[in-house]
Amino acid sequence: MSDTSINTRADTGEAGFGDYFALLKPRVMSLVVFTAAVGLLAAPGGVHPFVAFCSILFIAVGGGASGALNMWWDADIDRVMKRTQSRPIPSGKVTPDEAMAIGVALSGFAVVMLGLAANWVAAGLLAFTIFFYVVIYTMWLKRWTPQNIVIGGAAGAFPPMIGWAVVTGGISIESVLMFTLIFMWTPPHFWALCLFMKSDYKDAGVPMLHVTHGHRVTRNHILVYTILLAIIAVGMAFTGVGGPIYLVTSLVLNALFLAGAVAIWRRDETVAERDGYKREKAFFGLSLLYLFLHFGAILAEAALAPYGWGGW
Amino acid sequence: MSFRDDHELHKRRFGRNLGVALVLVGFIVIVFGLTVVKVTRGDYEPENAVVSN
């Protein structure tokens, strides 16, 4: 054994702080923070800024904890997929037991602290989100049905509802619509990624739609979900969180998104492979911008409302 | 195993300990801050409390 191999992190079992932090899926956490913050700021009424800050932090910690539990359960899949091989568990930096302990401890911590800082409706929603992501999605649906991402996407859609509940202490049509926006956005976003990352899921044996039903069906599904998403997204403009800024933003984005979905639907594998999945990659990139700008527009409406600009 | 390799291990361990320390300090600040906010806003006043002058 060489010196180099003796001193790899896997052999020493000494993970750095950053390795534990990576368990919390920081990039997913950033989306959770953003959408939860928009839900909180768009809600009628208000909370003390420090309570708002702490609530967002606890929601992020709860989201991160579910990410750690996901990595613990899915370590076998992560070892196979190229995209996830460098994660802390498959790379040997953190043991599965450590990841499980951190996930469980932080889940409990985040729920209790959110309940104490804000209210128990928000804490209950956070607890349900963690349960849904870890048990319903990760442990059950992901390896069982090609509709895994559709139902599992609900977990990522809860943060704006939790942010809303922090202020109002309840659930309303606006918060449900914000949930629905992310819920309907997740399948086309993820399936577009699957189209050009096909070999990874196939190798891991995860029954993603394109693995079980082929690319033609996946392309059809992307189009159908994008049409349904457009109806919901534009419809939101006429609710309490909408307004002219949101309406214009949503119309432009949905026109672009629909055009992208139609382009994907009209293509077949031969054409897509010839240009290196250019359209699919562009659609995936647009999907990130789509969600960010929709929630950005909701935030803009809420921010301008005190000056008589936001809302209808 | 050379001293250089051990040093890397200790550096990583120190970084981890420092990270945990900062998280704990952050937790203390959060609990203290939340307590101040809740108490000054009267969140823990009994609803039927009588204020006497």
From TrEMBL, chain A:
Q: What does this protein do?
A: Converts heme B (protoheme IX) to heme O by substitution of the vinyl group on carbon 2 of heme B porphyrin ring with a hydroxyethyl farnesyl side group.
What this protein is called in its record is Protoheme IX farnesyltransferase
Per the UniProt record, the source organism is Shimia aestuarii
Q: Which gene encodes it?
A: ctaB
Q: Which InterPro entries match?
A: Protohaem_IX_farnesylTrfase (IPR006369), UbiA_prenyltransferase (IPR000537), UbiA_prenylTrfase_CS (IPR030470), UbiA_sf (IPR044878)
Q: Which branch of life, at top level? A: Bacteria
Q: What is its EC number?
A: 2.5.1.141
The GO biological-process annotations, alphabetized, read as:
heme O biosynthetic process
Subunit arrangement? Interacts with CtaA.
Per the record's keyword annotation, is NADP included, yes or no?
Answer: no
Automatic annotation (TrEMBL), chain B:
- Regions crossing the membrane: 20-37
Keywords, sorted A to Z: Membrane, Transmembrane, Transmembrane helix
Which protein is depicted?
A: Cytochrome C oxidase assembly protein
